[in-house]
Amino acid sequence: MIQEAQLTIDLNSLAHNYTCLRSKLKEDTALIAVVKANAYGADGARIAQELAKLGTKHFAVAYTAEAVVLREANIKEDIMVFYPQLGQLERIIEYQLEPVLYTLEIVKAFLLLLKQKNLKDYPVHIKCNTGLNRIGLSQEDLIFFLKEMDTTSMHIKSIYSHLGASENPKPCPFTQQQINAFEIVKQTVKDYCPILPKFHLLNSSGVFNYPEHQLDAVRVGIALYGFANQAEWDLELRPIAKLSAPICQIHRVKKGENVGYNQGWKATQDSRIGIIPIGHADGIGRQYGHGVGNVQIVGRTAPIVGNVCMDMLMIDLGSIRCDVGTEVILFDKNTTAADFAATGNTISYEILTGLNSRIQRVYQ
Predict the structure, then answer these.
(1) Which of 35, 46, 132, 188 is within CB 3.0–4.6 Å of 164 for a Cys-Cys bond?
(2) N-terminal to C-terminal alpha carbon distance within the chain
(3) Where do the domains of the chain lie?
(4) How far apart (Å, rounded) are the C-alpha atoms in residues 211 and 7?
């Protein structure tokens, strides 16, 4: 019997997903495992340790602080930092991380820092904007960088871009435009670089939808955790996470009585209400409740009722036979995080990455 809210991580499913993804790649295509946002809510350090055991040589995170956590957990493999900030460049070098340079301002600042420290051949990656218009060097900035700037203190390991709609059914004109734009990037690099870096474009969905464009490497995140943004692709993967919590109290509520803040739910009949110790501070958003979102108890379904509280939510037990301490499952391999997210008009990414650290992580 579980004593508190917990996220149970199935390491065998993680291994299955890694093997599945690796099987879709050529032998010489590198797999960059994305473990940002605490490995999509699981535990960045622990997941990276497990993936390293499976053979992963390259990791990526969003921000420097996440990479520092991995280094302090004895992850010795390459770690890309997708979005380094100017104030963190010293730490990048201190922890031997590999920054992604995505603006000329960051390029110039990092070059100056390398020269001040008299460092040579420091590994970096270059992000190019091919139409997502989020971050990345424009074609003009890329040419300026390659043609005009003294990059002798750097070793450009890779140049890449990011697809904004890789899960959309093919043919997808926008994705094709991005692929074409990246071909221009590649040609530009070939024109100016005597020693070519590696190129990569695909994310998780891209591995499934555009394997012909896997190039030298792919960056996989959500697929490692069991999702690929299309139902048929998801069938090849296994969700690694199960979120559950025990019933901590059961109220008997009479017809016409209210439950929760602001009289959020009114009983239409005499009811049994289960209180579950997990709330919006744990990542279960306020869009749930009022019949939005269900949980599983002893193989049956119960709706979330009333307003989700900071530390608790309430469910209508109906005729379900259960007691205090009975496990309530919010999502697992059967009713997945994607399923749970969809009922709240959101996506698995938001649910998984929003899970608070006070939820106990358990590995099996």
Answers:
(1) 132
(2) 16
(3) 11-234, 241-363
(4) 32
Is residue 279 within 8 Å of residue 331, measured between CB atoms? no
- In tens, the pLDDT along 161-202 reads 999 999 999 999 999 999 999 999 999 999 999 899 999 999
Three-state DSSP at 206 gives helix
User: What is the CA angle 112-68-101, rounded to 5?
Assistant: 35
Phi, psi (5° rounding) for residue 182? -75, -30
Cis bond leading into 171, ω under 30°? yes
Q: Hey, CA dihedral for 170, 211, 202, 19, is it positive or negative?
A: positive
Neighbours of 261 (CB within 10 A): 12
Across the beta sheet with 249-253, the strand order is: 249-253, 271-276, 313-316, 300-305, 294-297, 327-331, 241-246, 6-9, 360-363
- Strand, helix or coil for residue 250: strand
Please state whether beta strands 241-246 and 249-253 pair in parallel, antiparallel, or not at all (unpaired).
unpaired
Per-residue pLDDT of 88-106, as tens digits, reads 999 999 999 999 999 999 9
Element (H, E) at 313: strand 313-316
State the architecture of 241-363 in CATH terms.
Beta Barrel (2.40)
Tell whether the model's pLDDT for residue 160 goes beyond 80.
yes
* Single pTM value for the model: 0.95
Instruction: List the one residue out of 37, 14, 9, 13 whose CA is nearest residue 283.
Output: 37
CATH superfamily of 11-234: Alanine racemase (3.20.20.10)
The span from the CA of 330 to the CA of 78, in Å, is 35
Query: What's the rounded Cα separation, in Å, for the pair 210 and 364?
Result: 33
